[in-house]
Amino acid sequence: MAEQLLAHRGEPLAARTAWAVRSWWLCARMWMRSMMAYRASFALNLLASLATHSLDFVVLVIMFRHTDRLGGWNLPEIAFLYATATFSLGVANMLVGSVDGLGVRIVNGSLDTMLIRPAPALSQLCAERFSLRRLGRPLQAVAVLAWSLAALDVHWTWDRVLLVPVLLVCGSVIFGAIYVGGATVQFWWGESKEIQNSFTYGGATLLHYPPTIFAKELVAGVVFGVPLAFVNWLPALHILGRPDPLGLPVAFQYASPVAAALCVAAAGLAWRAGLRAYRGTGS
Amino acid sequence: MLNAVPAGARPPDPTAAPAASPRPDAAAALGLYAAVAHGAFRRYSTYRAATLAGTFTNTVFGIILASSFLALWQARPGLGGYDQSQAVTYIWVSQALLVTVAVWGGGFQDDVQDRFRSGDIAVDLYRPVDFQGWWLATDLGRAAFQLLVRGTGPMLVGALVFRTRLPENPLTWAFFLLSVLLAVVVSFGLRFLVSITGFWLHDSEGVRSVMLVVSMFFSGMLLPIALFPGLLGDLAPVLPWAALVKVPTDVFLERASGSGLLGALGFQLAWAAALLAAGRGAQWLATRRVVVQGG
User: Which residues of A touch B222 (CB under 8 A)?
Assistant: First the structure.
């Protein structure tokens, strides 16, 4: 076991990443099989999750029964923001969201069990209780996105078309990194889970609305601080042809892949630091 | 989680309970429930770091939602009978209520759920304390702590960052506290009914998740009920969920006064009584069922 574990230590980053992804997939497949034992329960849960997450959009639609612009943006534009933010959060939540259970595992000592298994602990944590019923959120977002793209009055140039899938991928990666980075804080502060919620769920709620309605300090905070603005705000400004309320250089609107890469690097470093600082209680 | 319960919040040890008098008089019973509520208050106050983290999250959501409401009310001043500062205050009051009133469930529900899983629920039922009264007392203690901390913290930040509207009449504070108390009881009544389905379903998680959706929407937590269109707008104000967020915010924002205020509090009281009675009936059915299974 130890040899297997150490076998990957000296290998290049690409090989280690591939091994981590493969470990994640093995764990996730196991959980999927176990959850699928209860098909009716799965179907009901998926439907309930679809309904729950649609409610946020229903609220936006009700708001737009009273006005036709919010912060100068119309409903299809806001639906685009809503759908892209929700999709990114939903995919990240499905793939790595379980990592926020770290604090509980540290308290009850079951993290130690993960550490002695011949697979990266992070992969195991992320795949924990993996369930396709978490598809409810992204599925519902895809439906809203389809409606929004049909209803938008946008001149579709090739770079705008290309930016949509880039946005979805990078947005999911950024949220994924926030999940992992946020969970890392639990190595030091076990009860910090709720703080993480304000960056993931709170962040997605923030990104449902156009940046024009928020204080400039807050918008600057999510560009240069926790880079949520790169999930959808900045690329959406270009796709929808909207002026940037902060007046940042145009390059920022294309910079989501760079932001995503930086987020992943930061989350990875934080995870390693956390894991080094961790001392099992032996319980 | 249960291991962390200080002695005061645990179901009493049957041997330590007044076993000699199975029907203690009213004053002793009240003292017992007060002690239970106090224990629950103390229990929640031990999770300091988690409370701090939760307060931070409430504040973040408050800032985001208040900004979105500000934008909506800038586009449509006076919408739903709220002016701008009222609309913003609505968000901060509702954030204060979210956990206090347990709009999305939780509180005693988590404990009861654990006890269903472990089978301890059967032990709870033959204790010389009323099952419903016991859990109501713990929930009131929990709510008191959360109103104090998770209620006031975000409100202070809200008042600093936004132009909020505090009650003009000092008596309003008293009515608001009364309204929050009734809201917690109504919410308890609803959650108790959900939890008690566990006697039949063994796991009330599914019912709970449906309840969460209904509760978040119809309480006015996501959007004031006054903005709901058509039939939804007619239906929502008479459903019990309106007692959770809509009525306390109306009281705080002084949208109801005189007989309107009494009517609003009466509405909460009526639902509280009806739900507690329904819970009592369901408990009676459930305990019969447990006896049948045990026999």
Answer: 55-56, 59
